UniProtKB/TrEMBL annotation:
Organism for this UniProt entry: Acidocella aromatica
Keywords of the record: Signal
InterPro entries assigned: ModA/WtpA (IPR050682)
Gene Ontology biological-process entries: molybdate ion transport
Name of this protein: ABC-type molybdate transport system substrate-binding protein
GO molecular function (one): molybdate ion binding
PANTHER family linked: MOLYBDATE-BINDING PERIPLASMIC PROTEIN, SULFATE-BINDING PROTEIN
Cleaved signal peptide residues: 1-25
Superkingdom as given in the UniProt entry: Bacteria
Length: 328
């Protein structure tokens, strides 16, 4: 017993003595690269006028999908996370035209299905050790999801569509796995990061595109067999997880919206994409609506009207979105 206790003490001491070395090694130029991890926009997505003490540690203490000041919001947006990167310029343009909201917009950018669950929980969210309540004024997601929540009384009509988006295959820069098509995603040994259809609206559209490209067999290979044998990783927030998994070498490819690949390339991350031909692609229609019993309904209506303005549409077009024309 004495030997066992002594061994345990030595083991603990060894681990503790190794910890500073591990941290030190991670801080070296050729070691841990915290720039790989979000937030990628260096605070631009937070419109708070007084940011106080900055305590952001990528991968450790980091709430990348919660934006703004909770103390006195005058507009709260639940935004499907597929265009989190466009929200900084959108909010800035909206505030320029509506200065009464400057510094008072709070928004959440996670998958639409999760946002709906938060509304069911009264707007209460726990992230890490922090719990807070922030009820939305407007909900923004795919048109079908928005309409379904109108039909169940969660949102107020009308649904307001504004832009569309198409799919692409995101790959690491250089495309080391030589992915050229959706069919290639079913090749033996190809590791995938794919959105989870349970939480992410894009998942259903990806499934439809896989069936167009390779029938039920390709969809089954990727979303059932691949999940079971570990070659397919299902994400919960694909708009952040997919490029992270690619950059860390944990996946060879993943289907995302074209806009997300454009953003990743624009900020300099080693990400590229493989276009999907129109015959195999799927198009999303983005829409929003005012939340029933919203605290700030006029602000929500102003935001929805702004999203259809030339200013907002030009911001969306920068990332590859197309204005909604009623024919998509």
């Amino acid at each position: 017993m004495r030997l066992v206790k002594d061994f345990k003490k030595l083991l603990v001491l060894a681990v503790l003595s190794a910890m500073p070395l591990a941290v030190h090694a991670q801080s070296q130029p050729h070691g841990y690269n915290d720039q790989v991890f979000p937030p990628w926009q260096h605070g631009a997505n937070n419109d708070a006028l007084n940011k106080g003490f900055d305590f952001t540690v990528p991968e450790v203490d980091n709430m990348a999908d919660f934006h703004g000041d909770l103390s006195d919001p005058k507009l709260v947006l639940y935004v499907g996370g597929n265009y989190y990167f466009a929200m900084a310029p959108l909010v800035a343009a909206f505030e320029a035209a509506n200065p009464q909201y400057k510094g008072h917009i709070f928004y959440v950018t996670i998958p639409p299905g999760m946002l709906a669950k938060i509304m069911q929980q009264g707007g209460t969210i726990t992230s890490g050790n922090m719990t807070f309540t922030v009820k939305p004024d407007a909900y923004l997601a795919g048109l079908k999801k928005v309409q379904s929540l109108i039909d169940t009384g969660v949102l107020s009509a009308p649904a307001v569509p504004y832009v569309t988006n198409d799919l692409t295959i995101m790959v690491p820069k250089g495309n080391p796995a030589h992915i050229e098509s959706l069919a290639d995603l079913g090749r033996p040994g190809v590791k995938l990061a794919m959105p989870n259809p349970t939480y992410e609206g894009i998942g259903k559209q990806i499934e439809a595109s896989l069936r167009k490209a390779g029938g039920d067999a390709l969809e089954t290979q990727i979303y059932q067999t691949g999940v079971q044998n570990g070659t397919t990783i299902l994400t919960h927030i694909h708009h952040r997880q997919t490029p992270l998994l690619l950059m860390q070498g944990l996946a060879d490819a993943g289907v995302t919206w074209k806009s997300e690949a454009i953003f990743q390339e624009e900020i300099g991350n080693p990400i590229s994409d493989v276009p999907i031909p129109p015959a195999e692609n799927s198009t999303a229609i983005y829409a929003g609506a005012v939340v029933k019993d919203a605290a700030h309904p006029d602000a929500a209506k102003a935001w929805l009207a702004f999203l259809r303005s030339p200013t907002a549409l030009s911001i969306f077009e920068h990332y590859g979105f197309k204005p909604y024309t009623g024919h998509s």
